[in-house]
Amino acid sequence: MNPVDALVKSLGVEQSVALLFAAACFFGAGVLGFAVQLNFLRPVAGQFIPVCAVAGLIGVSHGILTIRLQHVAKTLAASSKLPAAT
To answer: pLDDT, tens digit, for every residue of 21-77?
Structure first.
């Protein structure tokens, strides 16, 4: 496997992990919000909802960044494989 393919594959795994982390954070914020709203938890627990949301946003931005990096790596690899115009 050439280094570019390995990089693209690695970025794909990192993208999946980052987006799964973001989804878990948003899900956790939602569950925490419902638990506070339905009085299963004390209202003090609601202060952690923004923390979960910010962590989710960080995960989403990281996932989007890896998508862009994958695209850049694929584009650079394709442009380096083009035959030289003579």
So the answer is: 999 999 999 999 999 998 888 888 889 889 999 999 999 999 999 999 988 888 888
pTM of the model: 0.79
> What's the CA gap between 11 and 4, in Å, rounded?
10
Q: Which residue has the tokens 């987006």?
A: 19
The half-sphere exposure of 24 on its side-chain side, counting CA atoms within 13 A, is 7
* Measured CA distances, 27 to 33, 52, 68, 74 (Å): 10, 9, 25, 32
Among 80, 82, 78, 74, smallest CA distance to 7 is for 74
